[in-house]
Each structure stands twice: as C-alpha cells, then as structure tokens.
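WARN no homologs supplied; continuing
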Amino acid sequence: MDRMTDFCDLHEIDAKNVIMRLFVQTFAGEVRKWFRGLQVACIATLADLKRQFLDHWEVKKNPLQILAEYEQIK
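OK structure emitted
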C-alpha cells in the first residue's frame, strides 16, 4: 500500500477519488444505467455517491409494514 500512496502523492492523485472511480466500475445493469444518467459532476465525494446511491436504491419500508411482516413470521 505504501507504493500506491507514494504514487498518489507524487502525481497529486486523491486516493479516495480513485477508490470511488474503481467502485463505480463494478456497477452493472440498472445500477449502471442509473449512474450514467446522473448529471455530470454531481458527485464530488465518496459520501455524495453513497448518499445518492442509497437515496435511489435503498428499500424504504413503512415501520408498520415491517412490524406486520414480523408478526406474520411468528
């Protein structure tokens, strides 16, 4: 990891930026379509990517629905 850090420092590359760019290369299917449909430069940090990703893809359930599903399991 030291060589990577040295390389990033030498070429003034932000390691977090590299991680984010590598991560988005793993997207496929609908997630890739969603990502490519985002406005240019709307994600500046890994935190921005996480927030937008979860806002779009996270399953949001009503707490009462979760409780009803739990009761059905019993």
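The first helix runs from residue 2 to 10.
OK
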